[in-house]
């Protein structure tokens, strides 16, 4: 469990000492299941800060929405830290203008797993170590946290922020990389027909709301390829060609950039499990290039660099 | 609204009669379109009113909203002048005489000519937005309509002389004693005989009288923004100052939602609004 | 007419309608319910205490729809659609009320949308009221309610093992022809359930002078404050039963001009070819969304353009809550308009 008092103390310090101009974190939502991202500019506001398992957004997505020169502080969990690093490598922010408050993460609770079990009339949610207590209109329920975690978090390799300026809480053990790899291999082991059916089934629910894109820290293009008119890359409507084109191309644009945070899946209003695409590409990056994004702010992603001794002659 | 059985979204089939550049830099091109079917032409001219616009359609590219730049008496064709800006207007520029084109219209409200009868008209235009004012002037100035209106004063400004549209008619209007035309360019040029300066300043210089007059302003947003207050200063009441607005449009018939200014749709309740009406709408432009 | 239907008899009745109509009912899709055509093996979802994920507006204004077909040599023809008469069963009052609101936009003298009109004319709507108020809805706050009758041919009230059916039109009567009449007692019992449900809905925000407060504070910092964490996706507007904005695009390869759901929350919505954008950031776009629903709809048809269905509250990825935004708006300064 995150030490909220320590987080708040550090947040107050950062703001009152002028280390940062804005601290991006979370505050309670207007409903118990949805804490909201918050932008604290004043130490007095920090009393409102929360950091719990229901904080489902990857805050790094807000980094590219703030002015580049602004000194930004951010609460980062494992995947968020790696997303921030990826953005620094892509020169979307300089590391000197960042102060990262690292929170070792026990996983994000998938609020839909709560609703599936107890319905929507949730009045309060409290976490106690490895238990989650849910108060609803119909009574009191208790769950093991593990059974409520978002699927991406169950596959997480790096729960502890890798390059925070300060770590609040005990570093957690690294996850087993085999879990993510096995999930990809299991899917890949299916026949081409089965995989294609799955792809079509998931894509056909898409309503082109682009919540996945907006929730993703790495999707920051001012003009997304779907909005481009000449040439027109993919159909813009909820047609099979359009939806499939959207999913495939966005996944490919994430190659070597996705930190497996799962924010896309959590944002999707149609429960589309699109991470199977990016997870496959992440595994490919590991296997072929021995590359995992965001572990530091120096290593260049293989697909964004060209050197004279690249294996494929055509790239020179 | 055209009264045909075609869906509101299906363009009327037309062909390009003539296409020619207005401006020396080829950024502005005029297209004159003829109707493939006589019933469409009849329905169009029955409904048409200067100040209205149409959506010109290039199959595969999209549609572009353009003001009608011709008066009904000119003949069985419809004139538009398009500035080359994006993919559809580029496609329009590439059209030649004989090419097929689609048109949806006439759309919008047009100028309230009934209300303007008996009044002096002060017509102020800038840049390529002059096209509907050109249609208005052609309509008002025609012998059958002239006696319905009072004094005609025109102010037309362009960045350079080369960007002036409808040069042939403008030259003739300078010679015409029945109207007072003040043409302006932004910066001095050799052999320029008329005003130099921005339209709002020229309007102040010309100082048209607000007595029994209405003023209509069509120009780029920045020009309109500064000309409207100049007219107020000169004593024009907000109900007697008109302008034509533009916003991104798609359906043109008040259905898709995007061209709204508060509760009004520019494509349907406009594009012509009085300053009094605008003052009651949010500044969402 | 007030009739009763045994719940057990519902599946059979719905199947019998299939002789003449396509029947759309809420069915399970992944983890949620969705209006889909009734098949022989369909499993109905009629007892969840809330509405479907996607509003049934999708059955009148499809997510994507062909408007015009391109013919050879640059010609055009109307896209001909074949709409089979259909019955939508289980539509919630919030969603039906929204269809009535959308009618005021799509069906107007001289400006009627032919595609919308055809679908409307060929649709019978059988509503299912919400005897157990949903958790995030606020229909009563915006002037409607869990047993609102707008745009319904019949309204069902769940009274345990039975439904009370109030037929509201000839079409509704025809659908339930042959069923037994409800006794006065049963009817009173149902009315009680309806009133209780209505009263149980909490007041989410005050609507008095809300319109004036929103429209008189166009340049206020309020808009930035309530849109700070907005991601600018389209979830709220796409899941909204009263949102109707659409884009028109040419699909060259299919030789068609189509319309697709669009949203004022996207940057490109009002982006002009010159590069100018009247609503350049999420601040202005949030202002447009809230103002459209709680100011402009009132100016146009004197009704609030939100039916309190609660979907935007449940599915906003960053937990933004329109009810909280409007509660906050109540503290904006305003002047009572001395209108005629």
- CATH topology call of the largest domain in chain B: Rossmann fold
CATH class of the largest domain in chain A: Alpha Beta
Low-pLDDT regions of chain B: none
Mean pLDDT of chain B: 95
Radius of gyration of chain B (CA) equals: 18 Å
User: Strands of the largest sheet of chain B, in order across it?
Assistant: 10-9-8-7-11-12-15
> What gap, in angstroms, lies between the N and C termini of chain B?
26 Å
Give the radius of gyration of chain A. 20 Å
Total helices of chain B: the number is 9
If you had to describe this structure to a student in words, what would you say it looks like?
The complex is a heterotrimer of chains A (about 325), B (about 280) and C (about 350). With about 325 residues, chain A is of the alpha/beta class. Chain A folds into 3 domains: about 1-105 and about 155-175, 3-Layer(aba) Sandwich (Rossmann fold); about 110-150, no CATH class; about 175-290, no CATH class. Chain A contains 11 helices and 8 strands. Chain A has helices at about 5-15, 80-90, 110-120, 145-150, 150-155, 175-190, 190-205, 210-215, 240-255, 265, 275-290; strands spanning about 20-25, 35-40, 70-75, 100, 120-130, 130-135, 140-145, 165. In chain A, a hairpin with a 2-residue loop joins strand 5 (about 120-130) and strand 6. In chain A, helix 6 (about 175-190) crosses helix 11. The longest helix of chain A is centred in the last third of the chain and has 15 residues, at about 275-290. Chain A is globular, with a radius of gyration of 20 Å. The radius of gyration of chain B is 18 Å and the shape is globular. Chain B has helices spanning about 40-45, 85-95, 115, 130-140, 145, 165-175, 200-205, 220-235, 275-280, and strands at about 10-20, 30-35, 55-60, 60-65, 80-85, 100-105, 120-125, 150-160, 180-185, 195, 215-220, 240-245, 260, 265, 270-275. The longest helix of chain B is centred in the C-terminal third of the chain and has 13 residues, at about 220-235. In chain B, the strands form 3 sheets. In chain B, strands 10-9-8-7-11-12-15 form a 7-stranded mixed sheet, sandwiched between helices. In chain B, strands 4-3-6-1-2-5 form a 6-stranded antiparallel sheet. Chain B folds into 2 domains: about 10-105, Translation factors (Elongation Factor Tu (Ef-tu), domain 3, Beta Barrel), CATH 2.40.30.10; about 115-245, 3-Layer(aba) Sandwich (Rossmann fold). Chain C has 2 domains: about 1-200, no CATH class; about 210-330, no CATH class. Chain C is about 30% helix and about 20% strand. Chain C has a 7-stranded mixed sheet with strand order 1-9-8-7-6-2-3. Chain C has a 4-stranded antiparallel sheet with strand order 5-4-11-10, with no helix packed on it. Chain C is globular and about 65 Å long. Chains in contact: A-C, B-C. Chains B and C meet through strand 6 of B and strand 4, strand 5, strand 10 and helix 9 of C.
């Amino acid at each position: 469990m995150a030490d909220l008092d320590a987080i708040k103390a550090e947040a107050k310090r950062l703001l009152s000492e002028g280390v940062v101009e804005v601290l991006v974190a979370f505050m309670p939502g207007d409903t118990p299941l949805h804490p909201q991202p918050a932008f604290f500019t004043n130490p007095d506001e920090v009393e409102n800060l929360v950091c719990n398992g229901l904080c489902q957004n990857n805050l790094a997505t807000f980094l590219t929405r703030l002015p580049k020169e602004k000194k930004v502080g951010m609460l980062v969990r494992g995947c968020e830290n790696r997303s921030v690093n990826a953005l620094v490598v892509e020169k979307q922010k300089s590391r000197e203008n960042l102060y990262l408050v690292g929170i070792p993460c026990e996983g994000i609770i998938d609020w839909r797993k709560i609703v599936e079990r107890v319905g929507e009339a949730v009045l309060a949610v409290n976490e106690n170590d490895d238990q989650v207590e849910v108060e609803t209109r119909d009574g009191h329920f208790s769950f093991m946290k593990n059974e409520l975690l978002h699927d991406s978090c169950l596959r997480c390799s790096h729960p502890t922020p890798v390059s925070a300026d300060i770590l609040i809480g005990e570093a957690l053990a690294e996850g087993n990389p085999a879990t993510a790899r096995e999930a990809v291999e299991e899917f890949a082991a299916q026949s081409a027909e089965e995989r294609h059916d799955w792809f079509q089934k998931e894509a056909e629910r898409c309503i082109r709301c682009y919540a996945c894109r907006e929730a993703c820290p790495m999707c920051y293009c001012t003009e997304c390829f779907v909005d481009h008119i000449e040439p027109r890359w993919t159909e813009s409507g909820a047609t099979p060609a359009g939806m499939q084109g959207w999913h495939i191309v966005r996944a490919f644009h994430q190659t070597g950039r996705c930190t497996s945070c799962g924010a896309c899946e959590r944002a999707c209003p149609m429960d589309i499990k699109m991470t199977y695409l990016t997870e496959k590409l992440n595994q490919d990056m590991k296997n072929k290039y021995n590359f995992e994004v965001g572990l530091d702010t120096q290593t260049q992603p293989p697909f964004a660099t060209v050197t004279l001794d690249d294996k494929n002659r055509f790239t020179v | 609204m055209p009264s045909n059985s075609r869906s509101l979204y299906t363009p009327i089939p037309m062909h390009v009669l003539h296409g020619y550049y207005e401006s020396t830099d080829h950024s502005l091109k005029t297209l004159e379109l003829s109707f493939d079917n006589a019933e469409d032409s009849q329905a169009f001219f029955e409904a048409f009113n200067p100040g209205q616009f149409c959506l010109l359609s290039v199959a595969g590219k999209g549609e572009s909203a353009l003001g009608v730049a011709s008066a009904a008496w000119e003949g069985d064709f419809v004139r538009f002048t398009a500035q080359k800006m994006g993919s559809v207007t580029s496609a329009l520029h590439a059209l030649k005489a004989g090419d097929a084109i689609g048109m949806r219209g006439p759309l919008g409200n047009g100028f309230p000519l009934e209300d303007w009868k008996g009044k002096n008209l002060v017509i102020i235009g800038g840049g390529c937005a002059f096209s509907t004012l050109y249609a208005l002037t052609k309509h008002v100035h025609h012998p059958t309509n002239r006696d319905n209106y009072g004094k005609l004063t025109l102010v037309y400004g362009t960045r350079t002389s080369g960007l002036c549209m409808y040069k042939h008619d403008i030259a003739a209007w300078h010679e015409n004693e029945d109207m007072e035309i003040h043409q302006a360019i932004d910066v001095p040029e050799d052999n320029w005989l008329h005003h130099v300066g921005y339209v709002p300043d020229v309007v102040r210089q010309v100082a048209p009288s607000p007595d029994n007059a209405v003023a209509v302003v069509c120009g780029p947003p920045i020009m309109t923004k500064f000309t409207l207050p100049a007219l107020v200063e000169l004593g024009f009441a907000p109900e007697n100052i008109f302008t034509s607005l533009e916003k991104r449009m798609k359906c043109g018939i008040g259905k898709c939602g995007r061209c709204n200014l508060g509760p009004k749709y520019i494509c349907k309740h406009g594009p012509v609004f009085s300053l009094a009406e605008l003052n009651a709408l949010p500044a969402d432009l | 007419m007030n009739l009763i239907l045994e719940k057990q008899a519902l599946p059979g009745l719905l199947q019998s309608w299939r002789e003449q109509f396509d029947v759309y009912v809420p069915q399970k899709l992944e983890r949620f319910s969705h209006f889909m055509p009734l098949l022989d093996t369909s499993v109905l979802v009629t007892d969840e205490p809330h509405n479907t994920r996607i509003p049934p507006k999708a059955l009148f204004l499809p997510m994507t729809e062909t408007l015009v077909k391109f013919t050879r040599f640059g010609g055009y023809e109307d896209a001909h659609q074949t709409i089979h008469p259909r019955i939508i069963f289980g539509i919630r009052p919030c969603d039906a009320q929204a269809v009535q609101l959308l009618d005021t936009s799509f069906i107007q003298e001289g400006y009627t949308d032919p595609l919308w009109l055809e679908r409307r004319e060929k649709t019978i709507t059988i509503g299912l009221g919400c005897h157990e108020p949903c958790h995030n809805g606020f229909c009563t706050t915006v002037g409607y309610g869990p047993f609102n009758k707008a745009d319904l041919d019949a309204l069902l009230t769940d009274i345990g093992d039975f439904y009370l059916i109030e037929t509201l039109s000839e079409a509704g009567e025809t659908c339930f022809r042959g069923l037994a009449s409800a006794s006065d007692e049963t009817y009173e019992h149902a009315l009680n359930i309806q009133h209780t449900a209505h009263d149980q809905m909490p007041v989410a925000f005050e609507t008095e002078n809300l319109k004036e407060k929103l429209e008189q504070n166009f340049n206020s910092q309020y808009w930035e404050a309530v849109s700070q964490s907005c991601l600018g996706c389209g979830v709220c507007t796409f899941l909204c039963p009263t949102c109707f904005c659409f884009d028109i695009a040419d699909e060259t390869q299919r030789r068609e001009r189509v319309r697709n759901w669009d949203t004022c929350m996207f940057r490109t919505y009002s982006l002009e070819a010159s590069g100018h954008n009247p609503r350049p950031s999420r601040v202005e776009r949030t202002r447009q969304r809230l103002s459209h629903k709680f100011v402009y709809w009132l100016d146009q048809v004197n009704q609030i353009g939100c039916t309190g269905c609660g979907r935007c509250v449940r599915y906003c990825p960053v937990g933004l809550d329109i009810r909280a935004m409007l509660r906050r708006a109540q503290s904006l300064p305003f002047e009572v308009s001395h209108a005629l």
